[in-house]
Each structure stands twice: as structure tokens, then as C-alpha cells.
Fold these 4 entries.
Entry 1:
Amino acid sequence: MSMSRPRNAMTVDVEDYFQVSAFERYIGREAWDRKECRVERNVDRILELFDRHAVRGTFFTLGWIAERYPNMVKRLVAQGHELASHGWSHVRVTQQQPDEFRQDIRRTKALLEDISGQAVIGYRAASYSIDASNLWALDALEDSGYRYSSSIYPIRHDLYGMPDAPRFAFRPSGGDFLEFPVTTVRVANRNLPCGGGGWFRFVPYAGMRWAMRRVNNTDKETAIFYFHPWEIDPDQPRQAGLDAKTRFRHYLNLERMEARLERLLGDFDWGRMDEVLYWPALRHPAPESSDVQ
């Protein structure tokens, strides 16, 4: 690894193709066990990809997945990756009452820690669904033993987003608990996404690379990148009856994703969320959440 380049945070949201929020209208959770589950083979491919590039990352994992594939979870931890929580069954925080949310995050944390034998300190909400309407969720996470979240996306989007949130790390309560918003680039007084997911498959690679370099070199900040195991799986079963927007977003450029990831892993240096963001932030305090309403 080149010591002259900043280290960024590589993250994977461990869910399968049929569990994405955009499919909620088409695939009920009661049908999940009848679907062909491809997450284990795809995670193993990701582990091989990361190993080739000597990358260690953070895997935000659904409890539903971990319960069915505990050996997969043990493999990723054994290879030096951070295990973190993605909630139990990909229910958006905007669809949960506070008591439901607390039960969900505590159940998931307990299972992941039981499987891995390690403390789980990180959380990412399904579809970045912590926003101005439910900031109580950050207090619930802290009270439940989590140390950080990466659940806010400071952009405007039809499915999620909190455009007025800070772009970089902040302390919601003024204590040691931290929120790490997904990375955006500031262009013409607007936040544009450059943290991964469907945007990474849609925008030309050179544009995404430019944006992340700007975050590193101009903002002097660590970038957070995320993707899903199903995004490297162009052969996944196709869901019939999708509306045009959902079909476009989900299936766009899946066949190119793995090659783009290869380039990204070579063009930047990467590490785990806890190692490149959480522990350094404790040594160099992030601002409090005065800008978050």
C-alpha cells in the first residue's frame, strides 16, 4: 500500500437480490425462503477480490442472512474484515416504531456477536433510512451498544436522503457515538453522490474517480464506498413485473461492476470503517450535530 495516499473505507451491504427495498412491492418477506439465495457465493467472490488487492473492509450484514449462513460470516471475520449490523430483515427505519427498531438492532447485534465472537460496533440502516424524521434512531443505537452508524445520505433522492445533514462525520449527542454519512461531492452548491451503489454503475468510472479524489484532496476527508453482493452477479434471477425505473436501477451494468471494482481497488487505498474512521475520529474529535435538526 502506498503511504502517500489517504485510506478510504470500503463497505459491503450484505443482502441478497430479492431483499432490496425497491422490490418490497413485488417480493414479500414471507417469500424470501422460497427464493434462490446467492449471497454466499457472491460474498466469497468479494472476499477473493479483496484478498487479491490486500483490502480489508466492513461488511454490514443482515441478521436474516447471518442466521442462515454463519460459516460465511465466520470466514469474512477470519480474513480480517469488520463485521457490522445492517438490521435483521432490511426494514427501513422510517417503517419502524422506536420499540420495534430497538428490538431489531439488539437482536441483530447479539446474533452477529454470537457467531463471530467479536464486538459489533457499527450499523447501517436499510436504504439509508435515518433522516430528519427519525433522528431518535441514533440515540437508540448508542443506547444499544453501537459506537457508530453510517446511515445518513446527505442528498436529495426519491427513496432516501437528508440533504441538509453534514457531509462528513459528526457526533449526534456530543458523546463518543459517531455518524459517518455516505460520501458526496459538492458541485455547484449541491451534494452529488459518489459513495457507490447504483450511482457507481450509472456514472462513468472516470467521473466517480474524480469525485472521490476531490473528497480526498480538496475536502481532505476519508471517502466511504459501498456496494452489494448482488451487484457483481449479472446471472441472478430476473424479477418479472418490475416498473421501468426499478428495473433500470437494479439491473444497470451488473456485468461491468466487478471490473469497475477491480479498478477502484487499485486506484485508491482502502480499510475498514472502524480502523480508518471510527478510532481516528475518537483521537481527533468530529463536530457535534448542531447542524442536524
Entry 2:
Amino acid sequence: MKVLLIGLPYFSNYLADKLSKNFPKDTFISLNTYYSKKDKILFFKHLSKADVIHSINGSISKSTAILLAVLLRKKVVMHWVGTDLIQAEMDYSNKKTNSTLISRPIHLTDTPWFIHRLEKVGIKNPKFIPLKGMEKCNTTPKFPEKFAVLCYIPENRAEFYGIDMAIKIATKLPDIKFNWVGMSNWKHDLPKNVHLHGWVSNISKYIDDSVVCLRMPKSDGLSFFVLESLSKGRYVAYNQPFEYSNYCDSLEDFVSFISEKKTEFDAKILTPDEAKSKIIQEIFDENMVFNQLRDIYL
């Protein structure tokens, strides 16, 4: 079996690497058809002998690669991840849709709460299948000696990732340490209890050094940061309705949640949430995720 992975390069590269290791008898090729002219040419070269085209990015209005793959009777998989769904909702509202892109591909999403939204733009029976899997760990990391809160805010998209809310939360809780990864500096003064760590290649250490992790972008697919934090037994405050995290949609919600956990931590009655850690590792087990994808391809 030969699978071409296109769309968002980060995910297509990740999946091609992982699937190749898990299923060495099959061929998985990642092509950056967004930004690489060379890869666009390679896509047409490989397409005739490909069995499956898996696009990590969806569209209901236009996609030359997908339409050509459908024309050649290839199996096509669209994996919806977030901003693509926002665009699809706009296209559907403006009646800029292509029925072939809606009806012919197998539609997947890495986010459970996207299912209903995909159905509302005309997609029938979309399925939830994660894009990334978790490696099982036998032990849940112990909490750090001092209570700390972790937040990921990339410098180039700080407003989108909720920096205004993050600043308000830290200001309300001046005695709590807040670690921010993703940014090295900010154009305005920050509360003294906020510590910037810049871009990090491996966020696991920072999760281990935290008790609570925050996630609050304006719009979000199911974040791997959230999954990894939960898998390590950390308590997650999230502005999306994910059943294994704590839903917060206001400043008061976030502050109350963090304060509650801080009180329990100081009283030495708070321990890593091992029950949720096990659930997350089971649901998002790497082997299970990749086997599900391969079953879709067959």
C-alpha cells in the first residue's frame, strides 16, 4: 500500500515517520504541497501509483490535489484540524461549496467537538481519530516541590492564544508562579510572577515541573499539549469542552480552579491524577491510533 500524506507539513511529516516505522511493508510519503514547488511536482509523479491520499487539512470549496485524486479513483481521506473548519463554515454560509469534496472523501477529525460542526456543513458521518498518539509510561511524574502553573503562548500568535487572559489570571494570583513557554519577551510589562522560557523543543520537562496547565486560545482543536499534560497526571484548565479537563470560559473560572488546586496542594492532599492519566494513555495509545488510521486506508 502506498499513502501520500499532504496538508499541514508538521502533521504529515510526523505521521509518515510513525506509520513507516509501524508498518514497514507499506509506503508513506509526506509532501509539502502548500509551500514546496518540488513537492507539488512529486505529488503528481506519485499520484498514479498511490492507493490513498490523506490530507491533514480539509476543504469543502476547493482543492486541486483532492479533486484530481478523486478523478483518478483514489481513496481520499480528509483530516480536519481547526482553522480549516472555520473556513469551511464560511464557505458553507456563502454557498461556496463543491459537492465532490463533501461527499467523496472519508472525513476524519482529531477533535471530538468538531463532529457536530462538520455535520452542519453537510459532511455525513465524520469520525474522530487522533493525529498523534501517546507513548505509555509506567509511572506518573511526581509534582514539583513548589506549586506552578504552565501555559503555552507562542510569541507570533500571542493574542490568539489568550495572552490577555493569561496576564489577568497571573495578576489575580500574584503569589503563584506562572511559567510561559513559546515566547521570550512581550511588548508590554508582565506581572512579576510570570516567567518566560521562550521556544522549547521538548515541553515535557515543563509539564513535569507544573501542577496546573492552562490552554485558552480563541479557537482550538484537541491540543496535544492538553493530552500530554493529562497523561502526566497534571490538572488542566481548558476553554474547550474536553471531558477529561476542567472547562473554564471566564477569568473567574480559571482563577477559581487554580486557587482550589493551590489550596489542596498546600494542604498536601493533592496528588497527580493517575486515573485520568491512564484513561488518556489508553484512548490515545500510539499503536491504537496508527492501527485505526491504517484500517481507514485499507
Entry 3:
Amino acid sequence: MNNELYGIWYKHPSNITNSPLMAYMIRLEGIESYGLYMQFADMLHTVGGYQEYDFKKISLMLGHTKKNIKAKLERVINDYQLFEFYTDDDGKEMVGLERLKEDIASLNKHKINGAKGGKKRAENYRNKSLSKDSKPKTQIAKETPITSVETEAPEYKIASFFYNHKYRSQLDFLIKRPFSPRANQQVYKNYMLNTYPENKEEIENSI
């Protein structure tokens, strides 16, 4: 028998007081008998669903020493078919509730599966970390996205027909249709050439 304690919670039939056997016992023994039933069921849950049938030991475990309470407890356990009895391989008579044993088996299964799941998640995390640490620096650098790249400024090209126009025509064209910085520069250069023709060579070399 598994001696691990199961003290969190356990399931029991809903509206159990209205079941025929339980209702019959309560009518004969009073509502106190239901409390004795549940107290013993709670104890059975902590020991795996079944307990060796030693009534004196059970009474002491439940804390009942008064004669009348002990007598009622004995009737609750023995007279109303609310508990199951069997003899184990060592010849000991056992008393308990099969539904509690099944409930504990289910809890054990969930516990084992949860532990396996936790170990698997931990293993996956470990493997992922090791895989990341074992990558060469060059590979990590390749996988790292580049957030910013400096690029050279594009070269602006101006159509030849623009060069052939006078300053005023070029200026009107730019007002109606904004063009590139190089075009603006050309307009300014033409303006300077028209305004200061005597300084043509200097303007050509500087603008």
C-alpha cells in the first residue's frame, strides 16, 4: 500500500446524503453518523483508500474513546454496506472505499505525467540554450539582423533639355514641378551667369 499522503482534496458522490444506504443510516443513527462516515473517509484518503481493519486502532486514529461514539462508529463501518472489505495477500482484513483508491491512482497518474512534462520542457530549454551557445560567432553574426546600413547618396541626373533653357524657364519649371537638388543648383548657376557674365570662369569652377 502506498503510504504517501493525499491531503489536498478528493472527489465524493454529489448529494451523497440522499443515496439509499446513506439516508437509511442517517435515519437510524442520526446526522452524527454522517460525520463519522466522512471523518473515516478522509482518513482513508490519506492512506491510499484502504486501511487494515483494526477497530481499536481506527478509533484511536480518529480520536474517539467514548463508548457510545465508538459503538456508533463500529455500526457505521460494519452495518450499512458503505465501505468495502477484502483480505490482502498477507491475510490482513482491509476496509476502505474503492472510489478513493481509484481517485488516488488518477492523481498519481497526473502527477507522474506532470513531472514528465516538466522534465521534457526543462530538457528542451537546456538543448536550446546549448545549441545557441555552440554556434560559431560568424554564424551568429550572419543570423543577427542588420538594423542600419549607411548608403552613399544617390547621384542626381538632370535631363539635357533643362540645361538648354534660360534661368526664368528653369525656375518656372521647378515651381510647377519640384526637381532634384542638382536642378536647383543649375538654376542658381544660370542666374549667376546671366547676372555676372564677366565672372563666367569663376562661376563655372565654383558652382
Entry 4:
Amino acid sequence: MIEELKSKSKSIGVVGLGYVGLPIALEFARKFRVVGFDINAERVELMKQSVDPSEELERSDFEGCDIKFTSDPIDLQECTFIVVAVPTPIDKHYQPDLKPLLGASRAVGRILKKGDIIVFESTVYPGCTEEDCLPVLEEESGLIGGKDFKIGYSPERINPGDKEHTLTRITKVTSGMDEESGELIAEVYGSIITAGIFKASSIKVAEAAKVIENTQRDLNIALMNELSIIFDRLDVNTYEVLEAAGTKWNFLNFKPGLVGGHCIGVDPYYLTYKAQAEGIIPKVILSGRNINDGMGAYVAKRTIQKLVSNGTDISKARILILGTTFKENVSDIRNSKVVDVVEELKSFSIDVEVIDPSANSQEVKEEYGYELTTEPSGEYDAIILAVIHEEFLNSGLEKYERHLKESGFFIDIKGAFTSKKEKSNYWSL
């Protein structure tokens, strides 16, 4: 198959052109013929004009790529190697929502041919690819997996906003349902990944490796968040403690903060779901999730306590929040924990304004019910730096601090301005 792909007599298909799928599609399209499919026709039209709807890639990244963008799944019929990179969110009950993944599997199953290889990249629990996706492919195609077609799994490791750890510079874990498919999948990805390939022994191992990567980070940040709560009660600055502890050679460099987004704040629930289905209660993982899910409300309540302590009338308080995306220097607002801060403050009838130069105000309004403010106005009783976008850091916050009342508080969630920590009206996690 690899020679036919190189000669472009056969094509590679990529299903799902979000922050994961689009970079993969474009990188493959520099060497092979590619069909990029997404169900969102508006996004597809933007990509046809060399525009990344996720605002991660530049127009130049589309240059020199042999790719056809489409919202018609029939166009995938010409593809023999198909990568599925669709979202795997959780529902309101913190359970895995496989609708996008199974929907993509059904679409691919309808155009599946003998000899095709399907590789899934979406984050799932161990066993999902073979136990949930494979039966759908077989049902829709009438073919038999392992005999008529092969499947594999290669977890995505895209880090939004990170210009250093890009697709080709990150070691790619690959796997197949048997030795033959495993070798071929590794060879295809190896043609574009300069950092090298790690061939997992099985699909389940690759799935498990992906889901624990973010679970490990989640737990470490949860520890920092719990420590910050303890140190706050003890009147000790968390960042001074971390600076001192960090002088030990094997101390891990994690910091407290809001844990949102569609990876760290979501992936652990896929593992806990599978563990509970097997009769195991993952106490440590769920405990970490509980701490991190509650940090938005904690920040809001500590802000209110600070205002009350200096005699502020909460019913008349005005608070400005800087940032609403799930992390710095990205436009993605999915699963942003800043929303928890906003909602908790508003539950006390506080007037809250939010500024974020990276976010789309209409998307924020549709997703979370509040609009963004473009410029600060009047005086605020507190300013909360929630997301450390470069624009905020470059301005030194002077543009915003001049709107802070003399008795107002500056709440620095990520400790970006610890130089201000000696001021009585400064607080950070």
C-alpha cells in the first residue's frame, strides 16, 4: 500500500478537520494525495480558502499540499488509508460521549472497501477501538475486520498554541490489530514524523498510553491546587514554596490553576468510566478530578471573601476577568473553567465583565450565555487574570490596572505577576 500511496494511485483520507485532524491532513498532503472530510460545511469552505477555523495554522501551511477538502463522505471512497480524528467529549454526567466517534465510524463503514486500513486518533478508553468502533465498521460495510480490512490506533498529541511541540516533532505512538497492519501504519506515519515512531504492542496499549498521559498531568495539577488551598489558609505564598522546592533535582514542575479544555479535563473520565465498568473505583483519579473541577468556584469565593474583608458592598461590586479561553494564546473556549468563575460570581449578583482578545464573542455567547467586552470601562473592585495571553503579559496589565479601585484586588490565578505579591491587595493560587 505504501508504494501506491507514494505514487498517488491511492489516497489518504482524514475524517474530522479540527485542531488534530487538519495538521495531520496537511502534513500527509505534502507527500500523498489526501481527502480531508469534515461534517461542518462552513469550516470546509474556509479551509478551501487556506484558512484554519481553529486559528492554529497559517495560510502558508496550506501551500504545496495535494488535498481536497469536502463535507461529502462519498468523496472518501477513493481513500484506502483513513484516519479518524473526531472529538471525544464527555456529557453533563461526566460520561464518555461517543456519538461523534461512532458517527464517523458509520460514515467510514459505508464507503469501506476490501484492503482498506482505518486508524483512529481520538482519545478513548482502552478497548474502545476494537469493542465499539470495529463492530460499527463491520455492520455498515458488511466486511470482516482483520480479514477484509484492518484497523489501528495512533493517539494524537497535538498541543494547541504550542509552536515548538508540533505534529512532526513529537514521537508518534502507533499500533495495529495485527503485525501486518501495525508495520504498515507505522511506515505511513513514519513518512511524515521526523521525531520517530513508537510501535505499541497492541491497540489497547496505545489507547491506555494516551489516556494516562493527561490523567497524570491532571493529578499533578490537582495536587498543586490542593496545596495552594492549604498554603492560602496558612498564609504562605504557593509560588515561593514551589520555587524553594524546585531546587531539588527531581521535584516536578507543576503549578496550580484552572484545568479545562478538551484533554486534561476530559480524558481522565474515559479511564474512570472503563474502570468502573470493570468494577474498580478509581479513587485517586476521581479525587483529582473533584479538586480540579471545583477550582473555578473556589477562586470566585476567595475573590468575594477578599472584597468583603475590605468593606465592599458585594451587591454593587464590579469585576473584570481577563481571558475566557481554556488556555493561553488559543481561541478555543471548549470546556473552559473560567466559565465556572463567571457563573459563581454572577450567582452573588456581581456585575462581571470579561475581556479576551483571542476568543470569539459570538461563540462565547452561544456556548456560555455571556458576551465579551472589548475595552475596560469605569472602575472595578477586582480584576482577575484568568488566562495569561501574551497580549495581557506584554501590556504589563497597566491598561487594565488603571481601572482598578485603590482598594480593589488583583487576582492572579496563574501567578504570572508574583512580583506584586507583596501588595496587600494581590492574591494568587
